[in-house]
């Protein structure tokens, strides 16, 4: 009992600390001060009156949303004695595996750098800066020579690493049993089974209406669709994050989706957010990074060749180039098993004062990375908002799809969940695929790493991502394939 | 890639049943891929085993054949042919303009200015050389606007150019017309018969000369049209819509709208600075194919479903429904404008390809109507769309006599006009919740297989 309370107060303390310096805090203070002019606020009951005022003017709701957002993103604090690595990843062998994987990636990046004699970063000459600024909205017209660049890694390389993960403390025993020998993932992580999933994802039950199924032309809209849309509009009017998250579990109406997702992710596109984006943009203009070429190459290879996303090519550059310079993304490494790579100023290798994170946001894009952004272009058209939505989606969900961790939404768990479900419930299919040399995970791995982007039709994909947001979990990716 | 026609026929009619076994099907070789997409006779012959035959019950031909043979061939009551005798009233740009202008005046007389304004979906157009003076008058009213010059008889973006100054027209005239490549000429074929099970596919004689060669002997007519300078852009790119309308009769007017269609994107970003850049402005797939950075793998097309979803996410359901209702209005009014002029014939039907452009205010404009929409496929998805389109066309034409005539939907086709508007409700003309909901589902979910099964029971295709 004591521990639970202790846990709660730790959480509260952490959230308070995080929100303390934020713009929301200063806005609330300012609002409170302005409210002093209101006749309803009386000195005797100052605290209560201000609280009421904040409630009725919608500011309390904003605070609620912010707190809710923090709760969603950060994991609950573990035992106070646990070292910080444990928030990233509690299992030592996982940390080690992630570390060696990162070393490999970095090695690949550095060797490409040396081969091509291109610096990791350099300042652009003034003329080039001007040119880029003019072309900002149509960077896709650029045809730089990217033939020498290659993606740092592709999902299949990552799968090879995951397949070789082993827990050194786990003894399989002499007899490999049916269950753990057939699949590719050989680590003993706890994954949910069907009854548990059914409970967790109860809103996806057959008895409950779903968009995408129960709003088809044959079903009269009175049964489900109309009411669902009405509720959606109400949720938006109330601006309640938690309610929105609950609501989207049954799917978002197309017209309301953009606003609902923004509400769940707590993105309001304030002037300071736009300013921040503009600053990132100027960083892009001023400095050229090696990863930019990787991003270009990836967009050209993947999104530009996709029938549905090729029109958004220019947006993808505007988002991804800025993303790689955004140091606020570094915050997510506190709860991710990954560590951002460090680079040293020339000649000062090993000296910490001259170390910078490279790329500035610590995320090295891999083959297909741009597909995380592409579906969002269907919903958001204003670059700074699109950017923020993507960034939030990344630091909440997508980062787990390409790092090694034991988190239930991490790719390792998803793979294991998928294999287990398939083995348990469709054993014949699983066995048959193995027999013909097509391990099912090999096929479905790339779908999961990309969260199905590019593999599902857009309307289906967006309905799937509705559920990811609604349940704050990626488990649906593994379960959906059944 | 196998042509959609071959695909369609091989799927639907591979296992014919009793109802069709006595029928003979004719598909003209040029029509296998549509106007302008040419398959030499020899190539087509290799593709199907041919024999000579003279009779057919159903003919899919191109307009050349029609023009030359329709008046001289005796056609029995039950045959079906895929064009109306004077379809050019709708498909040739100068005739379409005339018909629309006349119809508009009539509407104004009968129903007032407001109703007539519903005909304002066609950009201001003048025929040249006959209306040159009228054009110049209009041109001078608003200097600096862009105009587009299109030859009336040609398709696929040939001979089109844009200009802002009258001087540009003079230059063009002086330079002489761009040399036209003579299209591949067919040799005269005897009629061929293709055997596929019990069905015979008959290919009638080919006239040999194409539209253009005919035109060379006449003065070429052009239309000059106000260019839409503020098209709706997605990702900085311009696009137009291709929508399919099937008309099975003009008196009374009976028209079907296909749920699927596609949006054709320009492969380059839109800018008014490069008027001479043919590629930016014309979104016809045929022109795009020759653009320098055209990548056939890129796929310059979106299905209309995607477009509808994108627009709904951006503008909300209300505005998008208004947009699509405005498009329905275009289809109906354009057909009504030629209703009295088209020579009515119970044996004729026609599948039109409408080209629509949306501007930034979400107003749709009619660019043109094609009486022989291209049936070539640029991707797997496109191929399936066209296969299904042709299949459903055959279902609606109903050679087998399976339909009752009361159907409001056949496969992917929805009946949108049956001598009057068709509503979505149960009975023809019934109201839903007191409001009239039109039976149009452009860009909506197309579960045609299921619907066909319900309609025809479990008969093969």
Overview of the molecule:
Chain A: This is TBC1 domain family member 19. Chain A: Residues 251-472 form the Rab-GAP TBC domain. Chain A: It comes from Meleagris gallopavo. The complex is a heterodimer of chains A (482) and B (461). By secondary structure, chain A is mainly α. Chain A folds into three domains: 1-73, no CATH class; 90-171 and 179-193 and 286-337 and 364-478, no CATH class; 195-265, no CATH class. Helices cover 53% and strands 2% of the residues of chain A. Chain A has 22 helices and four strands. Chain A has helices at residues 2-20, 23-35, 46-56, 59-73, 85-88, 92-116, 126-134, 155-163, 178-181, 194-200, 225-238, 241-247, 254-264, 271-286, 290-301, 313-323, 383-396, 411-425, 427-435, 440-449, 458-471, 475-480; strands at 121-123, 287-289, 342-344, 355-357. The longest helix of chain A is centred in the first third of the chain and has 25 residues, at 92-116. Chain A is globular. Chain A starts with a helix and ends with a helix. The model of chain A has no long low-confidence stretch (mean pLDDT 81). With 461 residues, chain B is an alpha+beta fold. Chain B folds into three domains: 4-76, no CATH class; 88-95 and 237-457, 2-Layer Sandwich (D-amino Acid Aminotransferase, Chain A, domain 1); 124-178 and 220-227, no CATH class. In chain B, 32% of the residues lie in helices and 21% in strands. In chain B, strands 11, 12, 13, 14, 15, 16, 17 and 18 form an eight-stranded antiparallel beta sheet that branches. The interface between A and B is medium-sized, with 27 and 28 residues.
